[in-house]
Write a structure and sequence with these properties.
heterodimer; A: mainly alpha; Cytochrome Bc1 Complex, Chain D, domain 2; three-stranded mixed sheet; two-stranded antiparallel ribbon; 12 helices; 46% helix; B: mainly alpha; 2 domains; 7 helices; globular
Chain lengths: 272, 128
């Protein structure tokens, strides 16, 4: 346990590659919660908290994100004014689009998320890009998450791509760095304090965070992206939040998604 | 008690050359040593509870406090466990001195609470 924390809190060492990190990460949560099956971590806090799980299962019977999926589907199917459509940019079968992101794009030397790829497709077809908090964009990702249900998260860090490793390392450092007036690292809450309570909120495991986004948040009465959640948690520790889809958050998403490799995509989700 | 005294140097100035008054004042201070006034305790309690201030309940169970978190240990029997006021003050003002990786915000260090506010909170904690 001490060795695990040391390995993760140190910046890139010669021996600990992403796969060693991931295995240590997974085994930390598995030894913390020996009764929870690996795939259950895709359910966030509801994997851990039996009380709220019952409520959540009830909500899932009439999913509040259904409208977002339908809206996303109609947007996806509507051709651009030049006659082509999203499917002309995303060549893989529909069910495989979501799992192809986030990915390191060697040509651009940066991490490309699903949201960025959708906007790129629009720009390539002379359409204006969406704002990164636009409901159209989030609903498109809700549809793509839904069609990908059952597929696995499978983020690649190619050995011959030093940029990908650097992006990963950046995201990892971000996750373990203290920030803000409250002096919290993401890992302080979602690793070290997993399962504990901050006021009335129990803290979910990092493992599985990216599987179910976007989520419908009943508190907000609407859908939010994974990066909007990052934004909220950074603001809550009273740090200056970064822009949605900034390099910082893309690298953070890259790291976090890599940690969840092998988990089943189950988006969109419903959360408090 | 020391900080109360230090924070109010006008008492001393006022008392200079008035020996009987000074003696009376010292007696008064001696009799109240260790027992903070009710108003200080009440102020300390609200500073400890308010979400925009100490928000100690976010992480600590404190007697009748509502919706306490459990990231940190329960705050009870404080006088027995923290006989040294300065140790307690250091834990609140900058928890990272005792534990570099502390998940407790360094309240004075990061300007969340002033030292005076922490003194009030300590007066309250010592009633627990």
């Amino acid at each position: 346990m001490a060795a695990f924390l040391a390995a993760l809190s140190l910046p890139c060492t010669a021996f600990a590659g992403p796969e060693e990190d991931r295995l240590a990460f997974v085994s930390f949560f598995q030894s913390r919660f020996p009764d929870i099956l690996f795939d259950e971590f895709a359910n966030g806090i509801y994997a851990i908290d039996a009380d709220s799980r019952a409520q959540w299962l009830e909500i899932e019977e009439f999913p509040p994100y259904e409208f977002a999926i339908e809206h996303g589907q109609s947007l996806w199917q509507k051709p651009f004014s030049n006659g082509s459509a999203y499917a002309d940019c995303f060549k893989q079968p529909l069910a495989e689009v979501r799992a192809a992101y986030p990915a390191f794009d060697a040509g651009r030397a940066e991490v490309v998320t699903l949201e960025v790829a959708i906007n790129d497709c629009r720009v390539a077809n002379d359409e204006t890009p969406f704002a990164y908090d636009a409901s159209e964009l989030i609903d498109l990702t809700a549809y793509l998450g839904y069609t990908a249900r059952g597929k696995k998260i499978d983020v690649q860090i190619p050995a011959d791509e030093p940029g990908a490793l650097a992006a990963y390392e950046y995201g990892k450092r971000f996750y373990y760095s203290k920030r803000g007036q409250l002096n919290f690292a993401c890992a302080d809450c979602h690793v070290t304090s997993v399962g504990m309570r901050v006021r009335a909120d129990r803290l979910s495991a990092s493992l599985g965070h990216p599987t179910h986004f976007p989520v419908y948040r009943s508190k907000l009465g609407g859908m939010i992206s994974l990066q909007q959640r990052f934004f909220g948690c950074v603001r809550d520790v009273r740090a200056r939040p970064f822009e949605l889809q900034s390099t910082e958050y893309r690298n953070l998403e890259f790291f976090l998604a890599y940690m969840s490799n092998g988990l089943t995509i189950n988006g969109p989700g419903a959360r408090k | 008690m020391h900080s109360t005294f230090a924070n109010r140097p006008h008492y001393i100035r006022w008392a200079t050359g008035k020996a009987p008054a000074l003696a009376a004042l010292l007696l008064l201070l001696a009799s109240t040593a260790g027992a903070a006034s009710d108003t200080r305790v009440a102020e300390g309690k609200s500073l400890a509870t308010e979400r925009s201030k100490g928000n100690c309940l976010a992480c600590h169970m404190i007697e009748d406090g509502e919706l306490p978190g459990n990231l940190g240990p329960p705050l009870l029997a404080m006088k027995v466990r923290f006989p040294s006021r300065s140790t307690l003050k250091e834990q609140i003002c900058n928890a990272t001195i005792r534990n570099r990786d502390s998940r407790m915000p360094p309240f004075c260090q990061h300007g969340i609470l002033t030292e005076d506010e922490v003194e009030l909170i300590i007066d309250y904690l010592y009633t627990l």
